[in-house]
Write a structure and sequence with these properties.
The complex is a heterodimer.
Chain A lengths: L2 H25 L10 H8 L5 H35 L4 H13 L2 H11 L5 H22 L4 H9 L4 H36 L7 H10 L3 H33 L1
Helix pairs in contact in A: 2-10, 3-4, 3-6, 3-8, 3-9, 4-6, 5-6, 5-8, 6-8, 8-10, 9-10
Chain B lengths: L9 H26 L9 H10 L1 H35 L1 H15 L7 H8 L3 H24 L6 H7 L4 H39 L4 H10 L3 H33 L1
Helix pairs in contact in B: 2-10, 3-4, 3-6, 3-8, 3-9, 4-6, 5-6, 6-8, 8-9, 8-10, 9-10
The chains are: A mainly alpha, B mainly alpha.
């Protein structure tokens, strides 16, 4: 047995053990009524009658997350490129990004509620999370081109913009891809928190309603939906990251 | 950095380092003034500062609570993460079992777990603490694991040749090799610890900065709500900077 298959087997066992543990604790009520067995949660999640509810929430949250992800990525790339091309702006943009990242998400909600609208707030909160991660990863990626390559471009007479486009940008892609992967769960968290400030539907709304009405199984369903929405895209972005490292790393 | 470069004039330094933040504050002030927002809807940064100066004790008390939970949770989370990473280092079976699970968990949106944990542990500080522990656990486990596995090339052979026990390899080689990575985990976790504690406090409504925010927001004391957020922003930015300095020192010492 190769090390790869052995690790895969062990990993699958680990996950299976976790799921069995979850079911057992729920069945035996070891953690009280707040911990339903996995089977009960899955049963509700696949219940035909509830499908429209879950589908609406999932689609709404995914739309907001995708929108925030796009805005945040654009803003992060733009500021990173600006700071890289205009060095005097660098220190200030680093600090701006660090401070924006330190603003509590629950404070961003009310601000965007006034600045934009109820429906854009989740995407806006989510974009701030994404912005920081993309800015940081792109910034460090752009520094990655080696001095030897820079010298070569200088000797061959490439101007600043050409060097940026042909050398520094491609060299930055692996780091950017890592950032894009890490940014997805952060974007989802931003959208969920943003929804608490008055969105009409979404997973965040589902979570809050289930919590306030003590619908325990529904609450776990909402959590599983969030986890699924996070994992699927996280997995896809991991593939993108691998491709970026293979091609440009 | 300041000592190496010739000293820049103070004004230039402030503009160079803080132009983004200053622009943001200026835009906020203008936006509120020009739109004539009612302070209940959106206060100016100047008004928020006024509230901070006017009622310092409210803030101090709640900052103390949030900071205590964040620091305690940060330490506990890093201890658990490093401990499990060491266990996985000792046993390939444990590491095989744990690795995919932690990858799985590290992409889970933790805020979604807050209500579930609150149902299990109760709507009080223990839940806030649990959230901070969870949020700091993952980076420390992931970074400690990879650090423990990447000692300087050849050094492991040397230890084996000299007949070192597994324990002494851990203590003398693997743990020091993991220190720079642990420092990165610390930097990532430090700023998030306070923000995560605040979100949990906000949902739970018990005590601390998040609670202060929720309460003043619903009482239409918007200035104080933003004051609480401003304080949290400053603390978490300071934690990020401080942790960055710690990371630099650790890297200089161990790398």
């Amino acid at each position: 047995m190769t090390a790869g298959t052995r690790n895969a087997l062990l990993g699958a066992t680990g996950i299976a053990l976790f799921l069995v543990l979850w079911e057992t604790v729920g069945q035996l009520k070891l953690a009280g009524i707040s911990w339903p067995p996995l089977s009960a949660v899955l049963e509700m999640l696949t219940d035909e009658g509830r499908r429209p509810l879950f589908q609406r929430a999932l689609v709404a949250t995914l739309e907001e997350t995708a929108q925030g992800y796009l805005w945040g990525t654009t803003a992060g790339l733009a500021l990173a490129a600006l700071a890289h091309l205009v060095p005097p702006l660098r220190r200030g943009s680093d600090r701006l990004a660090a401070v924006l990242n330190s603003v509590p998400s629950i404070a961003l909600g009310p601000i965007f509620l006034v600045l934009l609208s109820r429906d854009s707030t989740p995407a806006a909160v989510s974009s701030i999370h994404v912005f920081f991660i993309v800015f940081v990863s792109m910034g460090s990626g752009l520094e990655r081109a080696t001095p030897a390559h820079r010298d070569l471009f200088a000797v061959l007479g490439a101007d600043r913009l050409k060097r940026f486009r042909r050398l520094e940008l491609p060299a930055a892609l692996p780091a950017l891809a890592s950032g894009l992967r890490l940014a997805w769960p952060a974007a989802l968290i931003g959208a969920i928190i943003g929804e608490w400030f008055g969105a009409s539907r979404g997973i965040g709304i589902l979570i809050i309603n289930a919590m306030q009405n003590f619908q325990i199984v529904l609450l776990w369903c909402a959590v599983l939906l969030a986890v699924g929405a996070s994992l699927v895209f996280y997995g896809l972005l991991t593939l993108l990251e691998r491709a970026a490292y293979a091609r440009f790393g | 950095m300041e000592t190496a470069a010739p000293k820049r004039p103070l004004l230039l330094r402030v503009v160079e380092d803080y132009w983004g933040i200053l622009l943001l504050l200026l835009a906020w002030q203008l936006w509120v003034v020009l739109n004539r927002f009612n302070p209940i809807v959106m206060p100016t940064p100047v008004a928020v500062l006024g509230d901070l100066v006017g009622h310092p004790m409210v803030y101090v008390r709640n900052v103390g609570i949030t900071l205590a939970v964040a620091v305690f949770g940060l330490v506990a989370g890093m201890a658990v993460g490093t401990g499990l990473a060491v266990a996985a280092w000792f046993s390939p079976v444990a590491s095989g079992l744990l690795n995919p699970l932690t990858v799985l968990f590290s992409s889970v949106p933790v805020v979604a777990l807050i209500p579930v944990i609150a149902r299990l542990l109760g709507y009080d500080t223990s839940t806030v603490l649990a959230i901070v522990v969870i949020i700091t656990f993952f980076p420390s486990f992931v970074f400690a694991s990879s650090g423990l596995r990447s000692p300087p090339p050849g050094s492991e052979d040397l230890f084996r040749v000299l007949g070192a026990s597994r324990l002494s390899v851990l203590w003398r080689l693997a743990l020091p090799a993991a220190m720079p990575n642990l420092a990165i985990a610390f930097k990532l976790a430090a700023a998030h610890a306070i923000l995560a504690a605040m979100v949990a406090e906000f949902l739970m409504g018990t005590s601390g900065l998040g609670y202060l925010f929720a309460k003043t927001k619903s009482d239409f004391q918007t200035e104080q709500a933003f004051g609480a957020s401003a304080v949290a922003t400053v603390i978490s930015a300071a934690a990020f900077l401080l942790a960055g300095l710690v990371e630099k020192r650790v890297r200089a010492r161990y790398a």
